[in-house]
Design a protein that fits this description.
The complex is a heterodimer of chains A (510) and B (85). With 510 residues, chain A is of the alpha/beta class. Among the domains of chain A are: 14-114, OB fold (Dihydrolipoamide Acetyltransferase, E2P), CATH 2.40.50; 135-280, Rossmann fold (3-Layer(aba) Sandwich); 439-474, no CATH class. Chain A is 51% helix and 16% strand. Chain A is built from 13 helices and 13 strands. Chain A has helices spanning 2-16, 22-36, 116-133, 161-173, 190-203, 234-242, 259-263, 271-278, 282-317, 321-359, 364-436, 438-443, 499-508; strands spanning 40-50, 57-62, 67-72, 89-99, 104-114, 151-156, 177-182, 215-220, 247-251, 266-267, 448-450, 468-472, 477-481. In chain A, the strands form three sheets. A five-stranded mixed barrel of chain A has the order 1-2-3-5-4. A five-stranded parallel beta sheet of chain A has the order 7-6-8-9-10, sandwiched between helices. In chain A, strands 11-12-13 form a three-stranded antiparallel beta sheet, with no helix packed on it. Chain B is of the alpha+beta class. Chain B has one domain. Chain B is built from three helices and two strands; from the N terminus they run H-H-H-E-E. Chain B has helices at residues 2-13, 17-33, 38-60; strands spanning 65-71, 77-81. A two-stranded antiparallel sheet of chain B has the order 1-2. In chain B, strand 1 and strand 2 (77-81) form a beta hairpin. In chain B, helix 1 packs across helix 3 (38-60) and helix 2 (17-33) runs antiparallel to helix 3 (38-60). The longest helix of chain B is centred in the middle third of the chain and has 23 residues, at 38-60. The N and C termini of chain B lie far apart (48 Å). The chains are: A alpha/beta (510), B alpha+beta (85). The interface between A and B is large, with 43 and 39 residues. Strand 7 of chain A pairs parallel with strand 1 (65-71) of chain B, so a sheet runs across the interface.
C-alpha cells in the first residue's frame, strides 16, 4: 500500500503537470501579463533614467517598497507629455510586458504626467529659484516696450482663438504689420519650438527680407498647469530672458503664472491685453495730435496778438518827434542865452572879487604896525586895569578905616553913656546906704558897743561885768569897763566867762 | 534758408512717433506759456508744424499686414500671407 502509494505519488506529475521549456514559460507569462495589464497607470518616482544611442529611454519607477522597470520607445518619446527627469514624481500610462531575456517584467510607457499639482508646483518653485539666482528675472534686465512698433512678432499657435484675439485687438487700436511664428503650444515639442521662435526673431537683421519685429508677443490660451508646462521649461525661459527684442508674455489666464512671465519684459494677463500693451490707440493719438495742432496755432496767434498789442502800446508811449525837437530847440536857445550872460557875469564877478581881495591885501610893515598898535592897545588896557584895581583897593581900605573910626566913636559914646548911668545909680545907692547905716543912728544919739574883738554887743549877757568894751559915738569912740548891774566896779577881769556857763549864782561861787 | 529747412525736415523724419509727439507737446506748452520771444515763437511753430506732419504720416501708416513665418529645410526664414484677419 505504502509502496504503491508512493509510486503513485512519484508518477503523478509525469502525467498531470505539463512540462514547459523556459521559453515557453516566459512567453506564456508574457502573454498572461500583457493580457491582464493592457493599460495601466502607475504612480512612482523616476529613478536612474538612461538615454542609450538607440533613441529609446529606460528608467525605473519606484516607491518606498518596490521598483518597476520602465521603457519609452523612441517613437513614443515626442508624445510622452513630459521630459524624463530623475526624481520626478509621475503617473506613467502604458502596458505591462515582460522581458523574457532576463526574467523581468516592465512597463512600456506611452504617456507621462506629473503626479499631482503639489509635485508639479514644487518643481516649478525649485526651477524658479534656480533661474532667479542666476539673475534671469532681474528688474534691470527688463526693457521698455516701444511706444509704436512698426512690426510685431507673435509666437503662438496659428490656429485657435489666441491669434485671432490678438489680431483683432491690434486692428482695433492700431493696425500694424504682424509676423506670426507658428509653434506648438502644448506637448513635448512646444518648449523647443517656442524657444527656437524667440531666437529666430532675434536673429533677423533690420532691413533684411523679413523685417525684424520691434516687439514680441508669446501667447497661449488658458489651460491646466500641465498644458502650460512648456512655458515653464528652462529652454523657453532662457530664450525669453536673452531676447534683445522686448517681449510680452501672455500665457494662460490672469491667474496662471508661468516662468516665462518672470523672464519677459512685460506680463500680459491675456493675449488681448498683450495686444493692448503692444500698440497705442491710433484714434486717441490722432485726437491728441489734432489737439496739439490747434493749440500750437492758437498759441502762436495769441503770441502774435500780444506782440501787436505790446507794439501799439509802446507806439502810443512814443512822443511826437517834431514836438520833441521843438522842445529841445527851445531848451538849447535858453541855454545859449544863459551861457553868454553867464560868461560876462562871471568876468565881472571875478573882477570884483579880485578888487576886494587886493584891497584887503597889506604890506608886512603895515601888518607889523597894526600888530604893534594892537600890542600897545593891549598894554594900555592892561595898565588901566592895573590902575583901576589899585584904586579900587585903596577906596576899599579908606572905607574900612572910616567904618572903624565911626565904630570907635560909637563905642566910646556908648561907654560914656553907660558910665554916667552907672555913676548915677551908685550915688543913689550910696545915699540910700547912708540912710540905712548905724552911723546915722549914732548921730541921732545912739551908741554902738563893741567888745574887745570889735564885735557889736547887742545883749547884756554879752557884756559881763569887768569886760572891756568900746563905745562908739557919732563923733568918736571911748573905752569903758562894764560894772556890776548895781553899778559897783567889777572884781575880776575873768568874770566875763562865767555868765556863759550858768548865770550869776554860779559866778558867785568864785 | 531752404537748406536749413530741408535739414530740419530730414531731422524730424528720423524721429520716432513718440519722440516727435513729445517734442510737439513741449513746443505747444512753451508757446502757451507765452514766454517765448516772437522770432523764436515763429521758429518753434514751424518746427511744431513739421512734427505734426511727421506724426500724421506715422499714424497714416496704419495698415495691417499679417504674415506667417515659413522655415525652409535649410533654415532660411521667409514669410507668406497668413490668411488671417
Amino acid at each position: 500500500m505504502a509502496s504503491s502509494e508512493s509510486a503513485t505519488v512519484s508518477e503523478a506529475p509525469r502525467h498531470n503537470v505539463p512540462e514547459y521549456t523556459v521559453s515557453e514559460l516566459a512567453f506564456a507569462l508574457k502573454r498572461e501579463v500583457e493580457q491582464a495589464f493592457p493599460r495601466v497607470r502607475v504612480r512612482g518616482e523616476i529613478s536612474q533614467p538612461t538615454f542609450p544611442r538607440s533613441g529609446h529611454c529606460y528608467f525605473r519607477l519606484k516607491d518606498t517598497d518596490a521598483v518597476l522597470d520602465a521603457v519609452v520607445w523612441k517613437s513614443a518619446l515626442p508624445r510622452l507629455g513630459l521630459k524624463v527627469e530623475e526624481g520626478l514624481e509621475v503617473i506613467a500610462t502604458g502596458r505591462l510586458t515582460t522581458y523574457p531575456g532576463s526574467s523581468r517584467y516592465q512597463i512600456v510607457v506611452e504617456r507621462l504626467e506629473m503626479a499631482g499639482q503639489g509635485a508639479l508646483l514644487k518643481q516649478l518653485e525649485e526651477r524658479r529659484k534656480k533661474l532667479q539666482a542666476e539673475g534671469l528675472f532681474e528688474a534691470s534686465r527688463k526693457r521698455k516696450l516701444p511706444f509704436l512698433p512698426e512690426v510685431i512678432g507673435v509666437i503662438t499657435s496659428p490656429s485657435g482663438a489666441v491669434i485671432r484675439d490678438i489680431l483683432h485687438r491690434l486692428a482695433d487700436r492700431f493696425p500694424r504689420r504682424v509676423l506670426i511664428w507658428p509653434v506648438a503650444v502644448q506637448g513635448t515639442t512646444a518648449a523647443p519650438e517656442v524657444a527656437r521662435a524667440i531666437e529666430g526673431f532675434n536673429r533677423l537683421t533690420p532691413g533684411g527680407p523679413v523685417p525684424r519685429p520691434d516687439v514680441l508677443i508669446v501667447a497661449r490660451g488658458g489651460g491646466s498647469l500641465e498644458d502650460l508646462w512648456a512655458f515653464n521649461e528652462e529652454i523657453v525661459v532662457r530664450a525669453a530672458a536673452a531676447s534683445t527684442i522686448p517681449l510680452i508674455s501672455a500665457v494662460g489666464h490672469e491667474t496662471d503664472t508661468t516662468l516665462i512671465d518672470f523672464a519677459s519684459d512685460r506680463r500680459a494677463p491675456t493675449p488681448t491685453a498683450a495686444a493692448e500693451m503692444a500698440v497705442p490707440v491710433r484714434a486717441e493719438l490722432l485726437a491728441d495730435l489734432r489737439d496739439h495742432d490747434g493749440r500750437l496755432l492758437n498759441a502762436l496767434n495769441r503770441r502774435l496778438r500780444e506782440a501787436e498789442t505790446e507794439l501799439a502800446g509802446l507806439a502810443r508811449g512814443l512822443p511826437d518827434p517834431v514836438r520833441l525837437i521843438e522842445e529841445r530847440t527851445q531848451r538849447l536857445d535858453v541855454c545859449g542865452e544863459r551861457l553868454a550872460a553867464a560868461t560876462t557875469n562871471l568876468v565881472a564877478l571875478r573882477r570884483a572879487q579880485f578888487a576886494g581881495a587886493a584891497d584887503r591885501l597889506r604890506t608886512p610893515r603895515e601888518v607889523i604896525e597894526a600888530k604893534a598898535q594892537q600890542l600897545a592897545g593891549e598894554w594900555r588896557a592892561l595898565a588901566g586895569a592895573l590902575r583901576r584895581f589899585a584904586g579900587e583897593t585903596q577906596q576899599k581900605t579908606a572905607r574900612v578905616e572910616d567904618r572903624v573910626d565911626a565904630l570907635s566913636e560909637r563905642m566910646a559914646r556908648c561907654m560914656r553913656g553907660l558910665l554916667d548911668q552907672r555913676s548915677g545909680s551908685v550915688d543913689g545907692l550910696g545915699k540910700l546906704l547912708e540912710s540905712y547905716s548905724f552911723k546915722g543912728t549914732l548921730s541921732r544919739g545912739f551908741a554902738l558897743v563893741r567888745d574887745a574883738a570889735g564885735h557889736a554887743v547887742v545883749s547884756a549877757t554879752a557884756a559881763p561885768p569887768g569886760s572891756g568894751v568900746r563905745i562908739e559915738f557919732a563923733d568918736g569912740t571911748v573905752g569903758a569897763t562894764v560894772d556890776q548891774p548895781d553899778g559897783k566896779p567889777a572884781t575880776s577881769a575873768a568874770a566875763p566867762a562865767k555868765p556863759r556857763r550858768g548865770g550869776g549864782s554860779q559866778g558867785s561861787l568864785f | 534758408m531752404a537748406d536749413t529747412k530741408n535739414a530740419a525736415a530730414a531731422d524730424v523724419a528720423t524721429l520716432s512717433f513718440e519722440d516727435a509727439l513729445r517734442e510737439l507737446e513741449g513746443i505747444v506748452q512753451d508757446l502757451e506759456r507765452g514766454q517765448v520771444k516772437l522770432d523764436e515763437a515763429i521758429a518753434r511753430y514751424e518746427r511744431g508744424a513739421l512734427l505734426k506732419r511727421h506724426c500724421e504720416a506715422k499714424l497714416a501708416e496704419a495698415k495691417a499686414k499679417v504674415e506667417k513665418i515659413v522655415l525652409s529645410a535649410n533654415g532660411v526664414v521667409t514669410t507668406e500671407n497668413a490668411g488671417l484677419g
